[in-house]
Design a protein that fits this description.
With 174 residues, the chain is an alpha/beta fold. 44% of the residues lie in helices and 22% in strands. The protein has five helices and six strands, in the order βαβββαβαβαα. The protein has a six-stranded mixed sheet. The two termini are 19 Å apart.
């Protein structure tokens, strides 16, 4: 897997002769689950996709699932939710990096571009929306994970839109 800055990932998508046109996959990485969302072909709308069970013992299987999704959905990159905390390195942030490292070590996703995107309050926002529905806790958790991934991906599209219209972003540091 290859880390790229968000701006570089989006600028590559916008190049007129870009060979790598395709969709993006949003990931909300948690302790037990990874919520997935996929963009439309124009990278304007994010939709919930699924939830993968996350265990250290099934990382190879998850990498194979990602390979299949890349092929089936014409994915060109991953937007990985990352809990930025300016004060300290959060435990959740370490978990996200370890997950990406473990996926990379499988060797199944070589060349796949990914970037991190601030996931502040994504899960909490979805939880607040679901609270009045009084759903089964397991069902609610899977919905939260999928829609947190949607929010991560959808908010990242704001940068993509800005890249189209504002040249000053070339100087913006991510």
């Amino acid at each position: 897997m290859q880390y790229v800055k968000p701006l570089n990932l989006f600028q590559n998508l916008l190049k007129p002769n870009a060979l790598e046109r395709g969709r993006l996959l949003g990931l909300d990485v948690g302790d037990k689950y990874v919520g997935l969302a996929v963009s439309d072909i124009d990278n304007k709308i994010a939709s919930p996709l699924s939830v993968l069970i996350r265990k250290k013992t099934n990382i190879d299987l998850m990498a194979s699932d990602f390979q299949s999704l890349i092929s089936e959905l014409s994915l060109v990159g991953f937007i990985v939710g990352y809990p930025y905390d300016r004060q300290r390195l959060a435990r959740d942030a370490t978990q996200v990096k370890l997950f990406i490292d473990d996926l990379s070590k499988t060797g199944k996703l070589d060349g796949v571009k990914y970037t991190f995107w601030d996931e502040c309050f994504t899960s909490k926002n979805v939880e607040l929306l679901l609270k009045p529905l009084s759903l089964n806790p397991v069902l609610a958790k899977t919905i939260v994970d999928k829609f947190a991934a949607v929010q991560i991906l959808q908010v990242s599209f704001l940068l993509l839109i800005l890249c189209k219209f504002d040249k000053f972003l070339e100087y913006y540091v991510f």
